[in-house]
Structures
1.
Amino acid sequence: MKAEIEFFRVLSMFGIIYFHSGYQYFKFVAYGGLVFFTVTAVFFYLQSGKKVNINRYIIPWSFWFIFYAVFSYLVNGYVFHNETNIFTMVFASPSLHLWFVPFISILFLFFGFFPYIIFNKLIGLFSCWFSIFLIVTYSQWDTSELTLPLAQYFHIIPAVLIAISFYSYTSNNDKYIMVSLFLLYGIVFLLIIFNNSNYAITYFFGLLPCLYLLKSKFIISKDSFLFKVSSSTFGVYFVHIFMFSFFRYFGLEGIFLLLSVFVCSYIGVFFSRWILPHKVATFLFG
């Protein structure tokens, strides 16, 4: 994995934790972390030859589904809110932040049905320009009123299309796709300037570090400290909501709450992966 990508994985996780902390300032910048995670997850899945085993996502997700169900019952007296429907129960889980794993798993299964020829130059161009269309017209199709987590699914679709464009460019080295990708960045930036679009802000900051997918060649060693910290990110995604509840119980709030959740989540997952048997750590944190 490229060193810069590993660094931005950790930074993006901080953005997601910041978003979940309830801070209103810069929250749309912080939410760009989800865009980055989606683009890189899809990009590296396609680059791997579709050899990513989705069980490494589903198995820990299943554990944390049960964990948050029990936790919610003990703390709130219920597992799901009364108004929650079956779709939300299954795909959002007792803790909404877990919606991403079913989404990315379904996506990988869907891609598995298509031969790699489908991700050619034409598809790369189409994906890029369709993502531009969706971002530009977001105010017309805003899905925030949809049932959870469908709103989240639709919100992140442009990131999936952009990942296909990145992959198509790196596979075909097509100048038209590269020009289209840079036009995408320019158009999103203009939406921020002239339209004050929060959706565009999220995508602009989420896509900026993705530029390293195009040019950077510096590969990080798996023995490096940065790689080991970054490898804990998926586990931090699972545990950080519990850590918010834990530290709020002891009265932490504001910046102290945010930093405590971020630092302690990484420390906890990092040392758990180091101490626990590999199979147990994989079961818990992927």
2.
Amino acid sequence: MPSPRRRARCGAPTPRSVVHPATARDAGRTRRSEARKSKVVREGEHALSIRAQEDRGRQWADQEGYRVRKVWKENLSAWSDIDRPKYDAAMDAVLNGEVPALWCAAPDRFSRKGIEAIGPILGKARVIFDYEQLDSSIERDRRWIIQRAEDAREYSQRLSHNVRTTKARQQREGKWLNQAPYGVVVDPVTRKVSPDITRLKGEKQSPWAVIERIFDSVADRTASRALAKAFNAERIPSPSGKTWRANTIGRIVHHPVYCGWLTVASGNGHKPAKYLDDKGNPVRCVEPDTVRKMIPEETAEKARASLAGHAVRPAKRPEGRRWSPLAGLLYCASCDLRMVADAPN
């Protein structure tokens, strides 16, 4: 006999995805569904893999006599320690008895925290793991669910270790792993940085020429606000494509990459800092013959000191005013001429 139509939730959690509600009329017996995708993608919750999970969940609901009441979709990580509000909502619904069942594509789509995440549902709620054909309400499936969940956790741990190890080696080799900052380009093969001297169509100067102008002007004690205003007047596009601002100038001046150094995010407001190897030495992210093309350290230090207000203009003696209180009052014992403070002898 066909199973009666029951009220449940179809949950298809996938790595890093959140299910959006797909409401249905509350008449009759219904269920809910959840879908998740591990890697954050541009399509977000409309990614193909998430839609495929939802389709499969709806097929299962039809076969089992359920009506899908709600679908949760996530485009979030199931491994990282981040908030998963859609996952939490699905768990609360099934554990609190709001719905009798939650459908999920596979244990690794549900969570990659192992028994920590699976434990609360065992023997207390019905969660269907479609790929493995496992049901948390069935006693004989309990061991298999725990094993699959721990397998997913172990895989994520190993993958995370491999990624960290590979990234650490690439950093020691001075490879730039992120998106290139404004004014520089990254070689896709060597991952080394070099000045972006490509002049875009309709622009008067290359991005690197703008970077050099920023450092030279600020080092010469030009205010960042005045420089930003000048760039906007000249219609020079900013890194974001919008107008220049004083803080944009400041971020560029303080970024070590323009001097050829590999950087990491620091804990102080996530400002980039020089990456240090195991011996505590900074690592270059440019080829040896490219170092001379980067901003000199002396110029960068002067610019940063100027922004911090530590640069002092050399004092100039106003016309008609003595440089020293005794200037012009003392005479040299050898030549009988007046002594001045700035005389060479």
3.
Amino acid sequence: MIRALVVDDEYFVRKGFISTMDWAAFEVTVVGEASNGRKALEWMEREPVDLLITDLAMPVMNGFDLMQEVRGRYPHVHMAVLTCHEDFKYIQEALRLGAIDYIVKTELENDQMQEALRRITMRIRDLSEAPRGGLNPLPTVRTEWSERDEERLQAQIDEWLPLYWVLKDAQFDALCDRMEEMNPPLSKLHNVMHYLLVEWNRMLHSQFLHEWLTKAEAVDSWPAWRAFISEFRGHVRHLFHVSSYPEDVVLRILEAAESAKLRDFYLTQNEMAYKLKLSRGYFSKCFKDLLGISYQDYMKELRLARAMNLLLQSSKPIADIAEECGYLDHRYFSRQFREKTGMLPSEYRSRHV
């Protein structure tokens, strides 16, 4: 059994996380819990731990400092993080400190939490079975990295996230060339791939993550990276049923998914279909076939995820949050939110903030 320690300063989050997960199904047992990094280290001095699952924002000692200490004192311990942030810079720091995965707190109330735990335990077993010594460095990778380089890399990530490049050869070649020209350090390249794969897996509602994270970690040269991303591209093209749908239709469905995240929060299925110049029935079938989820359920997930973030990160009234997330009736929003999380928005905010 994998012995796990859960660290989070929010009592109800910590207790809810521990009590609701089917740990035994993944051969994990929670042997302890702590409310901050210092208490976690004190606990680890007394008891052996295989897996540390920690929040990042905590008093006394935060998750970043805790991970730094654990990496030095207990290098055999695997680490995963709980976070409210989906920003790459924030997650990248956790990955740099040795996290094998991350869990977004807004997903704690749905099936994605089960998938995250499955992913983490499979990663632990893979790493335990892998030969020691790590990867060979990329022969031409640079070691110096500036703030300007970091900004350029973030811009690159923003271009990779929408999957238009899966279908557009010229864009794919251009993105690959720019990434190789930037020549990031190997550890940073691995962090970028890890982050992108998690986000693509979430977007496509797929189960490919474990396989492709394992392949990504084997990348140790630019030819190997180009081969990896080309193979992944072929895999996603297969998921998109490219042979069944015209390329322009697939691109329009990707456009719908992306624009819904960025600006079209209020569009109904009829309105989105009209915008893309597709019939409602055909749009509905294409969206479900290509992304593995209906348009209505996709929009519901986006709106409720945004609502969770706003509840945690702002003090806006619940009625204002409902409207900002595309719900004109705040009572209907509260019912939808409760169906998703088991709590009213006010309860969710009081428990998590």
